[in-house]
Amino acid sequence: MGMIKVDDISFFYEEGGEPALDRVSLEVTEGEYLALIGPNGCGKTTLMRHLNGLVLPSSGAVKIDGMDTADHRSRKEIRRRVGMVFQNPDHQIISMTVEEDVGFGPCNLGLSPTEVSGRVREALRATATEPFAKRAPHTLSGGEKRLVAIAGVLAMKPRYLVLDEPTSSLDPGSRRRVLDLIKSLNRDGLAVIHVTHDVEEATAADRVAVMSRGRIVLNGRPAEVLSRVEEIRNIGLDVPFATDLAWRLNRLGNGFRTDILTLEQALSEILVRLDASGRQKGSDGGRSNIL
Question: Which residues span the domain enclosing 112?
Answer without folding.
Answer: 3-236
